[in-house]
Amino acid sequence: MVVREVGLRDGLQSIQTILPTDCKREWIRAAYEAGQREIEVGSFVPPRLLPQLADTADLVRFAKTLPDLFVSVLVPNLKGAERAIAAQADLMLVPLSASHAHSLANLRKTPDEVVAEVARIRAVRDAAGSRTLIEGGIGTAFGCTLQGAVEPAEVLRCMQALLDAGADRVSIADTVGYANPAAVRDLFGQARKIAGEKFCCGHFHDTRGLALANIYAAMETGVARFDATLAGIGGCPYAPGASGNAASEDLVFMLGGMGIATGIDINRLLALRARLAGWLATETLHGTLWRAGLPKTYSTAVPTPLAAHTS
Amino acid sequence: MVVREVGLRDGLQSIQTILPTDCKREWIRAAYEAGQREIEVGSFVPPRLLPQLADTADLVRFAKTLPDLFVSVLVPNLKGAERAIAAQADLMLVPLSASHAHSLANLRKTPDEVVAEVARIRAVRDAAGSRTLIEGGIGTAFGCTLQGAVEPAEVLRCMQALLDAGADRVSIADTVGYANPAAVRDLFGQARKIAGEKFCCGHFHDTRGLALANIYAAMETGVARFDATLAGIGGCPYAPGASGNAASEDLVFMLGGMGIATGIDINRLLALRARLAGWLATETLHGTLWRAGLPKTYSTAVPTPLAAHTS
């Protein structure tokens, strides 16, 4: 099971603190040393929109020096994709919002316009002979705060369209914590039928405390990669103090307890969390394991890091 | 699905505040009006040990005035059981700790001595012509902070012994938050095979954030009743600030989102939580829904309260 660390992107874009590039490098290195092999290091968005992620190209360059680290970035459009290709990122995640209202408000595009952009990205990527994979990430898949309900059929239509447009992979995100285990089981089960192994990742926010239950439900459909952020940073700007993403350390703990290999050393991850808590001293952090500590019975044998996933 | 409120017992016994009897009565009434039909109102332990629960007999008397409310108490021994029978509680939960070390430290009895006490309680109950049900509650079923590992085989042995001794029902508790969904699925699945419908309830602490994931895993084995405490009060005295029980409001929210009827009005429950937060202003409360609020898409149609479970 792969726990993809997205704290450097989805976490840091949602908080006030601008983490210095040196700290981000330390974070990436320590996460790598803890055994994490997939890290989303930033986003190729215009720096005026997200100044806290302006060092993304630097971070890709640094992360690519770590053997077998699979380096992801988010790209909102073709321009971002060109930067990701130039930086030789291993994967670029193109977000699509299944909620039309959210899509127009956040991306200023309809879902179908995002699909068309993915087709252009694919053409440019192939023409450049680049090996940067394209992941279509379908957000607000369980509803959104603007539009309310989002139909599963629309999520699946977008998924098929992304694949047809040339996305190498697709993933589903519960952007605002509206999902529940039954909805996850249903939607993820259908998504697996459409996309098979190309449906590669689930992304769950813990806004209402269900992230880990939702991940467990998703695992039962065969999905084997989940996004998470250290200390659960991220969260919804519209719900001050609400929990953010699934906390990486809590997820690694759950999986380890279940006997599922992640290749990640939980004690090193907890030590890194403590450093992050120092860097983000003015932010609200989340997660529960750091406070309670590991159970006496927990096996902390250092596991072998998983091989990087490149397909 | 029954959400059994145990905050008045498992919650209040673990915190500093001594809640006045009037507040407890208000809590019981408001929980009842929100649709809760099973409430553990206290514990028949010596008042010098738990002065905060000294009003249990009063609370049973009050709770029994509410039509169709199924009123539970905890009893540690025969003496407590005699009080529960005299008070005409609907159910008395006799705790057994599957961890021998925890059993000796907390109950001053071995598990087998607790089983023998259950046999005595059964004899006295039957001789009195009482209809108070006996539930054997097996705690530290996934390990404990003193002993470490607890073998599933020992949990199941205790379960069979409790049934043989005359317990009407049995339940399993993760007293210290050591469980994970895989362990729950395995143990609960085996327990169902041994006890069938008599295995009636799961009790999960959220010490390490997995209570709701564990409950979802347990639901898949067919168990249809879970303990929870409003605002997640309870928690482990050895892990200051750590989360307590599964929060009733978060659990009701999860089940409602999944389309599973609990008979509980989530808005009334959240309103009650706000009152409880006032009563317990100096305590650390838990849960996530109260902060984020309900999703825009959430159905808050007031459901019919479930009929009381008496078998």
Short characterization:
Chains A, B: It comes from Paralcaligenes ureilyticus. Two copies of one chain form a homodimer. Chain A is an alpha/beta fold and 311 residues long.
- Gyration radius over CA of chain A: 18 Å
For the largest sheet of chain A, list the strands in their spatial order: 1-8-7-6-5-4-3-2
Query: What is the CATH topology of chain A?
Result: TIM Barrel
Strand content of chain A: 5-15%
From the spread of the alpha carbons, the general shape of chain A counts as: globular
Task: Name the CATH class of chain A.
Answer: Alpha Beta
Number of helices of chain A: 12
> Roughly what percent helix of chain A?
40-55%
The secondary structure category of chain A is alpha/beta
Keywords (chains A, B): Lyase, Metal-binding
Protein name (chains A, B): Hydroxymethylglutaryl-CoA lyase
Organism (chains A, B): Paralcaligenes ureilyticus
Pfam families (chains A, B): HMGL-like
Layout of strands and helices, then pairs:
The structure is a homodimer of 311-residue chains.
Chain A: E1 2-5, H1 7-11, H2 21-33, E2 38-43, H3 56-63, E3 70-74, H4 78-86, E4 91-97, H5 100-107, H6 111-127, E5 133-139, H7 152-165, E6 169-174, H8 181-195, E7 199-204, H9 211-219, E8 225-228, H10 248-257, H11 266-279, H12 289-292
Parallel strand pairs in A: 1-8, 2-3, 3-4, 4-5, 5-6, 6-7, 7-8
Task: Describe the structure in your own words.
The structure is a homodimer of 311-residue chains. With 311 residues, chain A is α/β, with parallel strands linked by helices. The first copy, chain A, has one domain (2-292): Aldolase class I (TIM Barrel). Chain A is built from 12 helices and 8 strands. An 8-stranded parallel beta sheet of chain A has the order 1-8-7-6-5-4-3-2. The first copy, chain A, is globular and about 50 Å long. Chain A binds chain B through residues 143-145, 148-149, 176-178, 180-183, 206-210, 212-213, 215-217, 236, 239, 241-243, 247, 250, 253-254, 257-260, 287-289, 291-293, 295-297, and chain B through 143-145, 148-149, 176-178, 180-183, 206-210, 212-213, 215-217, 236, 239, 241-243, 247, 250, 253-254, 257-260, 287-289, 291-293, 295-297.
